[in-house]
């Protein structure tokens, strides 16, 4: 994204959300703008609308201002040829008297994660103590739980149900030049 586009994006974020962000998807700002222009809205958006920073801007802010989600489909395949997951949701800031539907089932409420609220209260928060740390994901630093074929055969002979969890572990050794 060029500098002009980044500046414009920051301007939109500041004007609509009251704070700059470069981590929320642009769809968040469509939700915020619609919430200033109407009392009810319905959107088809990428399914990131209920995730992370995009959720914080697109849904948490309107919900904190009195909006309520009364119908949502959390994630479904885009009906066209694009390989894309979308969310569909309808919100209002008026007193909704109808049913609340989440993924075509009746629920008592729908939260910003596009789930039915549980007894756990509040929104996810970043752990400030680990702000500068990065998560590498799964990293295989050794052989771990790998066993040799003889030990696997013995475990299978002992109990055939072990086949449900024993899986081959394949390691690429690299390419060898043709002779």
Descriptive notes:
By secondary structure, this protein is of the alpha+beta class. Helices cover 27% and strands 17% of the residues. The chain contains 4 helices and 5 strands; from the N terminus they run H-H-E-H-E-E-E-E-H. The chain has helices at 3-17, 27-37, 52-64, 149-158; strands at residues 40-46, 68-77, 85-92, 100-102, 105-107. A 5-stranded mixed sheet has the order 1-3-2-4-5, with helices on one face. The longest helix has 15 residues, at 3-17. The protein is extended, with a radius of gyration of 24 Å. The N and C termini lie far apart (48 Å). The model has no long low-confidence stretch (mean pLDDT 84).
Estimate the mean pLDDT confidence: 84
Evaluate the radius of gyration.
Answer: 24 Å
Give me the count of strands: 5
Taken as a percent bin, the fraction of beta residues is: 15-25%
Biggest sheet, strands in spatial order?
1-3-2-4-5
Structural class: alpha+beta
Order of helices and strands: HHEHEEEEH
The largest sheet is:
5 strands, mixed
Oligomer: single chain
The count of helical stretches stands at 4
Q: Helical content, roughly?
A: 25-40%
Tell me the distance between the termini: 48 Å
Query: Which blocks of ≥5 consecutive residues have pLDDT under 50?
Result: none
Shape: extended
């Amino acid at each position: 994204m060029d500098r002009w586009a980044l500046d414009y994006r920051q301007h939109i974020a500041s004007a609509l959300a009251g704070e700059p962000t470069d981590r929320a998807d642009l769809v968040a700002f469509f939700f915020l703008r619609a919430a200033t222009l109407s009392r009810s809205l319905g959107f088809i958006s990428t399914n990131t609308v209920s995730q992370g920073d995009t959720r914080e801007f697109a849904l948490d802010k309107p919900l904190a201002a009195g909006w309520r989600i009364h119908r949502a489909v959390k994630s479904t395949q885009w009906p066209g040829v694009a390989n894309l997951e979308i969310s569909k949701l309808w919100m209002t800031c008026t007193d909704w008297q109808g049913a609340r539907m989440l993924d075509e089932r009746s629920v008592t409420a729908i939260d910003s994660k596009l789930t039915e609220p549980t007894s756990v209260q509040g929104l996810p928060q970043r752990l400030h103590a680990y702000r500068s740390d990065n998560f590498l994901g799964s990293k295989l630093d050794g052989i771990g739980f790998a066993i040799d074929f003889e030990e696997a055969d013995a475990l299978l002979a002992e109990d055939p149900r072990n086949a449900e969890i024993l899986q081959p572990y394949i390691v690429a050794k690299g390419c060898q030049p043709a002779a």
